[in-house]
Amino acid sequence: MSSTVPSLAQMRASLPPEKDRLDSLWLRFVLRKLSFPVTWVFIRLGFSANYVSYLSMLVVFGGTILMSIDDYFARMLGAFLFNFWVLLDCVDGNIARVKQQVNAYGEFADAMSGYIAYAFVFLGMGIAAEHTKPIMPGVMNQMNFVVMGALASICHLTTRLLYKKFVEVTGQPTLGSGTKPNILFTNIGITGLLMPSVLVSAIFGWLHWVTLFYLFCWGGAGAYFVVTKIIAVERSTQL
Amino acid sequence: MIKKSSSLREIRFTYTEEKRNSDKENLWLYLVIRRLSFYPTWVFLKIGISANQATFISMVLGVLGCALLGIGGYGNSIIGALFVSGWSILDCVDGNLARLTKSANKYGVLVDSLAGFMMSALLLTSVGIGVFNHPDLMANSLLQLVPTSLHVDKSLFLVLGAWGSLAAIFYSLISESFENMFSRPLFGDSTEKVGLSGKSSIILLIGSNMTGFGLLEPLLLIAAVSNSLSLLVVYYALVHSGAAVFTMTQAIRKGKNIGTSVDNKKGVHE
Hints:
By secondary structure, chain A is mostly helical.
């Protein structure tokens, strides 16, 4: 491993324009810029891209534990850790690209970290929402937000699982980057507005609404995928 | 063209060596469900129900079963568990029909997978909801084991049920992603597993039966009849958590061995 720490300019130059273009707006205009100095620090500390990915898994798990504690400052810290996860999600890729260590396993580790984040962040948000929820109107007062959060995770991960099976069975390449659904879900997802919205709603006590919003989003996304893709495959089979 | 006159013997002939080996990972499926499935296969063939229609019917049964389990109560839970077993049998019937009529296609494989993933997502969540709505005696005993300082009530089973489903979907996703990325299964294909000797094959056999749909259907029926679904929820929450951690560690270990050459051919992140 090279002992020379790349400069910030080298890090910025290593980011391919096509990747930058497909990132969420939050990532492109805010977090990516913050990620370069953080990347510099991690390279200086001797972290490889994969160890940053592993660290990010622990960070999101720690954030969930903190969000589960019924204390305002614990929730704030948990929400900050969730946002720090997004930064680390940029850092591991930055390290891999600038040190020219991009490989299949690194991509896989990065993806695993994303799945863990999707599994835990809604759960943490749901547990926090259950602590902070006000009296809700009608049947909504019966809702358990821990379950709502878990269901949001389940909907999202099940949709991803279905998508992977779709790719395996049909041989079609991964969902076209730059398509409207992809752009939408990238911008509201885990590298988009999700983490900042967790922080804002933790501050103002809106976690229950955000949990329900994302449950609606991922449930809707799953249904959209099933209806459009499965029907498309059926039609192509009948031709 | 579907041969409506196919006998049970001909239907059994479609049970290929490959399929038999694949079934062996799941004892309940191999010893009971697959054998039972030949009879409804014969009936569906006579009526003229296609493989894809059988998949659809199985999904309806599965969803109804989950709904009844979610409502809870002794009678609903038993009927729900029976419907889930019915889903499991019909989940074999569609494959039998597809092999017999040589009508297997991408759509059928996809819909069959969809049914399986949906049941993974729904089943334990529904059982947890049912236990929350109608806690059994075992639920109260289990809650007494939890320290009172944690202020835990029957909502615990709601959460554990959802958690059990979430963990199952999670380890399935890791496994599928691994296969997608490295073009090989994470835990080896069925012929490899059958070829394993001694300790390795026993460990894999125990693991595959303890998790997922391994022994879930018979355990679900037993738990419903003995009014101990709360114990089932706790068991699968723990087992699926362990399976998720195991799957991740195996994926990291095997992925590092395979994919650390400087080679970025496939993308996993969408």
